[in-house]
Predict the 3D structure of the following.
Amino acid sequence: MQFIDQARITVRGGRGGDGIVAFRREKYVPAGGPSGGDGGNGGSVVLEADANLQTLLDFKYKRLFPAVDGRRGGPNRCTGASGIDLVIRVPCGTEVRHLTTGILLGDLTTAGEQLVVAFGGRGGLGNAHYLSNRNRAPEKCTEGRDGEEWPLQLELKLLAEVGIIGLPNAGKSTLISVLSAARPKIADYPFTTLVPNLGVVRRPTGDGTVFADIPGLIAGAAQGAGLGHDFLRHIERTRLLIHLVDGGSEDPVSDLRVVEKELEAYGHGLVDRPRILVLNKQELLNDEAARAEQVERLQRESGRPVHLISAAMGQGLDQLLDLVWRELGI
């Protein structure tokens, strides 16, 4: 399935039906009077969060979403049928903004949550509505009103409690694959991961916690280098970040600085988010002295304790998860 996390659409509420001019003409009803009915209201456009959707792919090829118009009124004071609301299903975690102003209209995070994004037009009034003591045979009616029409920006931000960040080939996909049932693509070249991957890790209590593997950052991502910051929005909702540093890198401290700088450039409070610093691929650091030196340099640079693991060898993962549960208060 193609992963699409941004979409631009236009929503249009249904037009209200017109009122009509009509008079009763039955043989045995003298002075029957006006009987034109009102038009029905137009349908509204509603967005609804659906837990079964994971992407905004449905909006790639269809951009205009009009609701059903109301029907015109009928004789004998019959009101026209109102238009049916158009319900558009979106993934949980979808933010809805006005495309032009950028104003946040809603954030659909819970399955079944709904947001009306375009109201339908009100139906017009028939001439029966204008009957009065001074006007016993009104010939006036009104047209239905147009529904609202708005351009919208949809942004999907995955709902995960823990985000895994780091440079390309730091071992993020390997880590999420051994902690959960997720099966991301893993290879020995940069940018193997092109879209965020989600995995559910079982807590000690038995329920699951969602981890998100975010495609790697590189220096200059804020200016669009590599994959840029396109996917950092998916860890804005996380409560905890796991910063993975490649133990086989020539300069892990420099790698640490690169990611820290890009988090700061992105903003949204990510640089201040609770974070666990992890040195991965400890099997590549056979020399105890070299390992201790790397850990000391990283701790001195970050001001955080460093936790050694090997995702590929399955070493140190239980201790890492214990720390994650403590940070999350589980």
Q: What stands out?
A: Confidence is low (pLDDT under 50) at residues 189-193. Residues 241 and 281 are 19 Å apart (CA to CA). The two ends are 33 Å apart (CA to CA). The first strand starts at residue 6 and ends at 12.
